[in-house]
Specification:
Length: 434
């Protein structure tokens, strides 16, 4: 039990260090400014993670008196759309920092005293793991806000590793059943549960995400000007939004450049394309004579070990990610070139399924058979339906605690500010199936 407490404390501290890094990188004026109407001011995210921590770990798990019950409504994400949050009487930067520090001190006291078994909310430290994941998810949101911020660069990180092996073409995933989801991962969230068997026919999937060079071919071939490649909804959005290239790309003479965290450089041809919406990904796939994978196909490609006949936690096995496996945790501020993480490949030879870019999938968000909302409907269930599309695998801005082979993300199909890319898949012909 002490080892679990130590792990929990470490995850909470690591998340808070990252939150502080993202908040402290800018001055107070930038902290309270709204850098995009689809994003919150950074100071809102800062206080929100503390408020969620207070609600769940202090009041619910710990049974403690409120620190600031007067601000609950301000930091309820369902009460106030992001565009309205700058007008709220939010805690100022000094107050927000003081608030989250006070809450954290009290949470560590709760952690020292509470049992970590028995009730589902605390069993194996679930509530603490949920809050660590919640803060890291907001840290990725804050990183996306930094990408939308105008002004001098304030974030820096070393470049990702270079490609180690050549990767290209397709991988055939054999047909048959596999186990999707989990019933054993202690900090898995409700939408990842329960584990269930899914039968899929054989299919082909790209061995790597679509790169900038490949996507530029689509642009150069007039892909944004030809409605043949777009769904009716996608074409309507392309026209209304004036899409001509991935977000943050600009023409510089005869080449493309992009601006990332305040720095402009030529588009790297061998990196996975990032900042494309679902409609763009779907149009590219159609132009390439393919389609986007379904969520079940992605998870089988990422987790199924045909030799052992079982699903792994990650493509490479059951061990937690290391720097050799995947580009995670904001160690770098861009995707890594294709082929940079051979140690992270799946048994079938599919690369970079974890980290680098979230991958759009052609599946609506829904609960698995036997889904039970826990510990509250607003985490997953209220988003179920055809409004949202699935993303899997995490990005360079995703922390390992919030990224595993079963972790599910979702967003509106028009969103591009997230660190989203994709790979393609296709059905096999009768001759290929044999």
């Amino acid at each position: 039990m002490e080892a679990l407490r130590t792990r929990i404390a470490g995850e909470l501290e690591r998340a808070r260090a990252r939150t502080a890094q993202l908040a402290d990188a800018v001055d107070d004026t930038d902290l309270v400014r709204q850098h995009s109407p689809i994003m919150s001011p950074l100071v809102w995210d800062l206080a929100h993670v503390g408020n969620q921590e207070e609600l769940w770990l202090l009041r619910d798990v710990g049974g403690r008196e409120p620190v600031r019950c007067d601000i609950d409504e301000l930091y309820d994400a369902f009460r106030h759309p992001r565009r309205e949050r700058p007008a709220l009487p939010l805690l100022n930067p000094t107050e927000a920092r003081g608030y989250v520090a006070t809450v954290r001190d009290k949470v560590f006291d709760v952690l020292d005293r509470v049992r970590l078994d028995g009730e589902p909310l605390v069993d194996q430290g679930f509530a603490f793991g949920m809050i660590a994941q919640h803060e890291q998810q907001h840290d990725e949101t804050m990183l996306a806000t930094h990408q939308l911020r105008a002004g001098e660069p304030v974030l820096a990180a070393p470049r990702p590793p270079a490609a180690q092996v050549p990767v290209g073409g397709e991988v055939v995933v054999p047909g048959g059943p596999f186990t999707m989801g989990t019933s054993t991962e202690p900090w898995a969230l409700d939408n990842e549960r329960p584990a269930h068997r899914v039968h899929l026919p054989a299919f082909a999937i790209d061995a790597a995400p679509v790169t900038n060079a490949q996507y530029a071919e689509f642009i150069d071939a007039g892909g944004y000007d030809d409605p043949r490649w777009w769904t009716e909804q996608g074409w309507r959005h392309r026209v209304e939004a004036g899409l001509v290239a991935p977000m943050h790309w600009q023409r510089d003479g005869d080449r493309w450049v992009y601006t990332r965290f305040g720095r402009t450089s030529p588009v790297a041809p061998d990196e996975p394309v990032v900042h494309v919406c679902f409609h763009e990904a779907q149009a590219y796939a159609a132009w390439a004579g393919k389609r986007l994978p379904t969520e079940a196909e992605w998870e089988k490609a990422a987790r199924f070990d045909p030799a052992a006949g079982r699903s792994r936690r990650y493509p490479w096995g059951d061990e937690d990610p290391t720097e050799a496996h995947a580009n995670l945790g904001q160690r770098h501020l861009s995707p890594a070139p294709v082929g940079a993480y051979p140690a992270g490949a799946s048994p079938l030879g599919v690369h970079q399924l974890i980290g680098d870019v979230w991958e759009w999938l052609d599946t609506d968000f829904h609960g698995y058979p036997g889904f039970v909302a826990f510990p509250y409907r607003e985490y997953s269930e209220v988003f179920f339906g055809s409004t949202y599309k699935m993303l899997r695998g995490g990005s360079f801005g995703t922390d390992p605690v919030a990224c595993r082979g079963t972790f599910r993300n979702w967003d509106l199909p028009i969103r591009r500010q997230i660190f989203s890319g994709f790979r393609c898949a296709r059905d096999l012909s009768a001759d290929e199936i044999g």
